Amino acid sequence: MRRNHVVVSGLSLAAALFGIGTVGAADLPKARVKWEKVKLVDNLNEGIDVVDVNRDGKLDIISGPQWFEAPKWTPHPVRDVGTNNKEFFENNGDHAIDLNGDGYPDIISASWFSENVYWYENPGKEGLTEGRKWKQHHIIDGQGTCEGTLLQDIDGDKVPELILNHWTAEKPMTIVRIKPGKNGAPPQFRKVEIGKPQTGHGIGVGDINGDRRPDLVLPGGWFEQPASDWTARPWTFHKHNGFKMDHSSLPCLVVDVNGDGKNDIIYGKAHDYGLFWTEQGPAKDGEPTWTQHDIDKSFSQVHCLVWTDLDGDGRKEIVTGKRYRAHGDGDPGAADPQCLMRFIWNPESKSFEKDVISYGEKIGSGMQIRVADLDGDNKLDLAVAGKSGTHLLFNRGPNK
Fold first, then answer.
1. Are the C-beta atoms of residues 154 and 230 closer than 8 Å to each other?
2. Measured in whole angstroms, how far is the alpha carbon of residue 184 from the centre of its chain?
3. Could you tell me which of 276, 318, 326 has the C-alpha nearest to residue 301?
C-alpha cells in the first residue's frame, strides 16, 4: 500500500495554479506552521478516530474499514463498510470508546443510509494479532436520516453520551445514554428523546445561557438542559432570535470567542460557501440576542469544525476544511480544490485571521477532524478522512 510523504512550508503548486473558492491563491496568507503530510489509504471513508487500539502505548488511527498501527501505520482490518452510489462509504463517523470494560477501545459508528447504529467490539490482543474483524453489535434503530453523531459527556459523569443529528427536522432530538460493561460484559444503552422534532442538519454542544450545563444547538434554536436528571423530562426549546443556521456544520462550536463571558456560536455552511461566528449579546425578554459576523466565504462545504490550540500559544483557534463532494455534484463549489484551514482570533481587530494548513493537495476534512500528538513530540497533529483518502498531518512547528 503506497503512502505519500510531503513536507509543505507554504502554499503548494496546485494552490498557485488554481486559486481557492471565490478568491485567488495570491490572497492566501503564508502558512504559519510547517506540516508533514502522510497519506494512509485512498478510499471514500469519511469517519476517523485516534486511539491506542492494541494497548502498546502508541496512538493508532481507526478509519472505517481499517485501523493503522503506529508508528509505521500498518493497516489491519476492522469491519466491512458498504458503499452507496459509488460516492459514499456507509460511515458518517468513528468514535472510540471501551464499551465492555476489557481495556480495549471499541468503535461506535452510524451511517446516512442505515436504520441502525452499531458498535464494533475490539477482539483484544490475540484477535488483533491474528487480524480478526471486529464483532458487530446493535445499539439502536430507526435512524435512517442520521447526518452524523457526536460522542460527548453532557452531564459530567465522565461517561460520554451518543448524540444523534438528523438532516430532516421531522425526527425527535435523540441522545443515547451509555452504561459501559465491566470486565468484558456488554454495555447497556438507553435511548432518550429530549424534545419534539426540532432537529435539522448540524448540531453543537455548549452552555448557551450561562448555567454551566451543556445545551444542544441546532439550526433553528437550542435545547436547554434541565437542572436535574436530563433524561426525566423534555428539554425546553428556544428558537434562535434573528438568525438560522441552515445546513450547518457538525459540529458547530459553542465557545466564548471575544472573552466577554458569554458563549458564541461558530458554524459553517456544510453544503454551501461560508464560515461564520454569531456573537451572543444581552438577553432580551429572557432570550439571547445574536449578531452574525462573517469569517470566510472563500471555500464551500464547511462540514466539520474543531476548537483547539495547534501552535501551543495557549489560545484556541478554529480548524476546519472542505468536505469534498459532500453531495456529489450537488453543492456549490463541489469540485473546488480541497483545503484545511485554521482561523485565529485577533482580539485587537476583533476578527479571525486565516492560516493555511493544506490547499490543493487533495486533503479535505470529511466528517471528522481529530487532533492529537501522534508522534510524541509535544505538538498537536491532525488526522482526517475524506473522499480523497485518510491523511495524517504532522505539526513540525513554526514555518519560519
1. yes
2. 29
3. 326
Closest CA to 299 of 258, 345, 339: 339
CA angle 154, 158, 163 (to 5 degrees): 35
State pTM to two decimals: 0.92
Q: H-helix or E-strand containing 28?
A: none
The end-to-end CA distance of the chain, in Å, is 33
Q: What angle do CA 192, 193, 199 make, to 5 degrees?
A: 135
- Within a 10 A sphere around the Cβ of 287, how many other Cβ atoms? 15
Q: Which class for 57: exposed (0-12), middle (13-18), buried (19 or more C-beta within 10 A)? A: exposed
Judge whether 298 and 269 are in contact, CB under 8 Å.
no
CB 109 within 8 A of CB 121: no
* Architecture, CATH, for domain 5-398: 7 Propeller (2.130)
Residue found under cell 468536505: 323
The Cα 2–Cα 279 span in angstroms is 46
| CA–CA gap between residue 53 and residue 105 (Å, rounded) | 6
Q: Where are the domains of the chain?
A: 5-398
pLDDT along the chain (400 residues), means of 10: 37 36 63 97 97 99 98 98 86 98 98 94 98 98 91 98 93 96 98 89 97 96 96 95 91 98 98 97 94 97 98 97 92 94 98 97 96 98 97 97
Place of cell 485567488: 24
Alpha helix ranges (H) inside the chain: 13-18, 124-130
